[in-house]
């Protein structure tokens, strides 16, 4: 029997690549995003490769928190129970602190942190009732060290890391799984503006590695695992002055 999965932020970037990759493996999908046209394009791309693919799309802004609960409830019923939910929706802003960017930074926190929390709160009752399911959070290697001009993004990814650590401990003794992934530089619009993107990989390769980790039930991993599992630890030791220049 095919597994079911809901992905937030599936209209672009990592979410879109994950949707395409998971469809290749026969998953029944519920895809959410803010842009109806882009979601339709993802569905068309999937169906063009696999005409029998089952893809449902839902227009959703994860900062519309009541709608998160509504959409997940509808998708869970429509797909006969969600096996996996991937909280991927996220945004970033490149702006120093103190230059009038509070609203932009606030949006980052609302989307990346509160949106993910709403997603978890919406699906966990279903998972707990069935004593099954996997909640996947997309964090970032930015969770391991603050970077200049990306204060809110780094803060949001640290928050995701800590939130998932707490959730994982709460679920000890149950069969509900958590997976937290920390992507490095994956070639998507969210980082195209950056002057330096070390160890860059394509969205397609990133999606393949993420799906492999999800299927294995890995609790925590960088993406790709190497070199970022090592680099993420080294980042903590780099002097601020050096890291500021590199960034």
From TrEMBL:
Entry's Gene Ontology molecular function annotations: oxidoreductase activity
Alphabetical keyword list: Oxidoreductase
A GO cellular component entry from the record: membrane
Superkingdom of source: Bacteria
Domain Ketoreductase: 3-189
Keyword Disulfide bond carried by entry: no
InterPro entries tied to this protein: KR_dom, NAD(P)-bd_dom_sf, Sc_DH/Rdtase_CS, SDR_fam
Keyword Oxidoreductase: yes
Cited Pfam families: adh_short
Family annotation (PANTHER family): DEHYDROGENASE/REDUCTASE SDR FAMILY MEMBER 7B, SHORT CHAIN DEHYDROGENASE FAMILY PROTEIN
Family designation: Belongs to the short-chain dehydrogenases/reductases (SDR) family.
The protein, known as: 3-oxoacyl-ACP reductase
Species this chain originates from: Litoribrevibacter albus
């Amino acid at each position: 029997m095919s597994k079911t999965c809901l992905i937030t932020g599936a209209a672009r970037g990592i979410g879109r690549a994950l949707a395409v990759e998971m469809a290749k493996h026969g998953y029944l999908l519920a895809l959410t995003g803010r842009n109806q046209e882009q979601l339709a394009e993802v569905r068309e791309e999937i169906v063009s490769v696999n005409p029998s693919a089952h893809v449902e799309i839902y227009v959703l802004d994860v900062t519309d928190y009541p709608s998160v609960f509504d959409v997940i409830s509808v998708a869970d019923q429509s797909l006969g129970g969600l096996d996996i939910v991937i909280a991927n929706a996220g945004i970033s802003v490149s702006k120093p602190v103190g230059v009038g960017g509070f609203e932009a930074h606030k949006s980052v926190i609302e989307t990346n942190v509160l949106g993910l929390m709403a997603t978890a709160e919406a699906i966990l009752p279903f998972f707990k009732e069935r004593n099954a399911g996997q909640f996947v959070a997309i964090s970032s290697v930015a969770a391991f060290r603050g970077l200049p001009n990306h204060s809110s993004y780094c803060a949001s990814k640290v928050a995701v890391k800590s939130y998932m650590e707490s959730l994982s401990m709460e679920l000890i003794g149950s069969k509900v799984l958590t997976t937290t992934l920390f992507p490095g530089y994956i070639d998507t619009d969210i980082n195209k503006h950056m002057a330096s993107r070390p160890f860059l990989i394509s969205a397609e390769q990133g999606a393949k590695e993420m799906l492999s980790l999800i299927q294995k039930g890995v609790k925590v991993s960088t993406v790709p695992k190497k070199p970022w599992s090592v680099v993420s630890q080294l980042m903590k030791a780099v002097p601020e002055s050096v890291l500021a220049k590199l960034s």
